[in-house]
Amino acid sequence: MRLRDVLTIYRKDLLETLRDRRTLLFVLAVPALSICLISLGASRLVGAFVKEVAMRDIVVVATPETRAAYEELAHRAFLETKVGKTLERLANPILGAILPSPIQGLKLPDDMGAVVSQPAAYAEWARGLASQMRERAGEAVSRPSRANIAVPESFRGAGEDFFIQTVRGIGMVKWMTPAEVEVDERITSDSLSLALKELPDAKRIQSALDNRRIDVWMSIQMPKGPIDAKPWKTAQVSLYYDATQPTAQEAASRLRRTLDAASTAIVAERLRSLRQPSHLADPINVDVPAALSNPKNAMRSMIGGMVPYFIILFAYIGAMFPAIDLGAGEKERNTLETLLLAPVGRLEIALGKFLVVVTTSMTSALVGVCTAALMAAAILPPEVREMTSLKPSLEGLLAVVALAFPLACTFAGVFLGTALFARSFKEAQNYLSPLGVVLTLPPAYALLPWSELNGRTALIPMVNTALIARDYLVGNFHAGYYFMAMGSSLTVAAAALAFCTWQFHRESVLFRS
Amino acid sequence: MIEVHELAKTFPGGFFGRPVAAVRSVSFRCAPGEATALVGSNGAGKTTTLRMLATAIRPTGGDAQLAGFDVHRDAPEIRRRIGFLSTNTGLYLRLTPRELLTHYARLYSIPADRIPMELARAVELLELESFLDRQCDKLSTGMRQRVSLARTILHDPPILILDEPTLGLDIDANELVMSFLERCRDEGKTILLSTHVMGEVARLCRRVIVMAAGSVVFDGKTQELVSAHESVEAGVRAVMRGAR
């Protein structure tokens, strides 16, 4: 093999490729633009999701008795929180005078005594507080910027805990009475949901559930007498909602969180009255190891699953058009025959073109990843950026280059060999475009929660690239698997190159008409 | 010198098709300093014959020698000694003629210090100076053909194989190409030319080979055809009629 000839062909083909606007568009502009659009779109989408689902007012149908019972239970839950306990102490005239400062990041009620003792006063105060918090969060999601996308200060620390545990369940509930629900007369007993058939109000509940503006039908039957004194009794709560609707699911889970917190509070009170230790009701304490619950790892795992997705996608796009142009394009423009008649070996010709496609493929993948890193630096706040570890570093860049190289070689070999078989640019596009759909599957595997890098997956091309990139970003680098994957990927890349070279030796391919 | 002996080419028919015998046992000779015309109707096997001689495709039978080298064994050596041009020879449209010619000069292993000299020679011969640095996609058909010819003779090959080199050219471009080929012939190069223009045959070629259905049906001097049938065209027509 004459390296000089390979370089001559590489230099000419690269020059020609760089002068092709279509190739430049797909190699440089498409990755950069699509990453920008995906980043901005995703941040808007997440914002919209938070606004529409997580922060949305939920509409609950309940009788006045049920509403009162729910507010009482929510109050019980509140009093068990850190904020509730602090307020109880502050409301005490003696303790309130001793305690030095209010809770950080939380506006205290004017009448702390009423909030601590009366569920209705607490509900009113919590509703106002939630409204304030929601406004600030709304600003954050409607104008995602480095400053705004960060979690509002008031959500942090004690405020955050309070918000999650209590206010979410009360402050943003819009109540409706059953009488306000318009009964749909078209509903017959046959069209009723199975779970509702036995209920006296079945038709009305079904009408409420069918109405997409209503989220949950709730009914609470409180026992007669105090719930945390003997004889022990149980409150019966029923939640009816359409489980196929994400908004209804979110609404039901909000109510459940409050009710669960109330249940925990009542159990604690019962144990106190029995002079039993609080852990009596907790025979098993599940401790989640810190490493697993670390939000950094969760975020990195998610980003780690997406990075190889982009690497593979852009390596594919970056390889496809130059490969078609240098294969089928040369045939179509009648320049291939002239080249084949030059005193240069077919291997040299194949290698020169192959290296050009590898270059464009790698460039495209790098442009995509670097744009993603720059976009992350531009729109993510420092604390989130720190969590995702998407900092452009030489080490990270080298890791991406090393992973993308065998992938780009594989694409280059397969695409160039296939494009050479085609009679025209269009025919080559028809062959290679469907591959794009197939190529989305291996990186998608890395996004699955149960996917793992092991001796078997390390040998599967592309899947191994995706898994290694993901694990690397999470901080788990397995040198053994890395070299296995590299070996496997390079073997496949060598096979792809052999296929490409073989095609360049086949008369029936080169002069196919 | 080109010596062809019972050269044949059969293309495989693919999954369902039958094999196609494009060239059947063709033999002829072309001497240095002589232009030979390969004529015949479309599908007669001319282009396939030229491609086999240029080592683009491998013969399935017979053999041929160009400048003393065998088409089966010495393809790289033959490629160094021939200049091949066809009417549909494409140019790299995103390169300029200067870039394209420099690229081919490197592929033909012309030493780097000699490339400007060889380039200047080809540019002068084919009058490329005025558009040497214009991108090829901006050139007219005639200009492109002149660039292709320059590429063909850049390495000063002793043999030229030309497949319809003047097709689609205007009068001026045609005259330039014909004059150029006459000059090459007079310099002692061996020229094998496929064409449908009998005027070119009469002007340039001392010998004519007529092909029909993959076989040679006439191989003789141009003058013989003219003497027997008054013109080359009439002679070729008569030969082809006879072959049917």
How would you sum up this structure, described in words?
The complex is a heterodimer of chains A (513) and B (244). Chain A is mainly α and 513 residues long. Chain A contains 21 helices and four strands. Chain A has helices at 3-18, 21-54, 64-80, 82-91, 93-98, 112-117, 119-142, 157-170, 202-210, 246-273, 290-293, 295-332, 336-340, 346-379, 382-388, 394-421, 425-439, 441-445, 463-474, 479-504, 507-510; strands at 58-61, 173-176, 216-221, 236-241. A four-stranded mixed sheet of chain A has the order 2-1-3-4, with helices on both faces. In chain A, helix 2 (21-54) runs parallel beside helix 14 (346-379), helix 3 crosses helix 7 and helix 12 packs antiparallel against helix 14. Chain B is an alpha/beta fold and 244 residues long. Chain B is built from nine helices and ten strands. Chain B has helices at residues 46-53, 75-81, 97-107, 115-126, 141-153, 171-186, 198-204, 222-229, 232-243; strands spanning 2-11, 20-30, 35-40, 61-66, 69-70, 82-86, 159-163, 190-194, 207-212, 215-221. In chain B, helix 4 crosses helix 5 (141-153). The longest helix of chain B is centred in the C-terminal third of the chain and has 16 residues, at 171-186. The radius of gyration of chain B is 18 Å and the shape is globular.
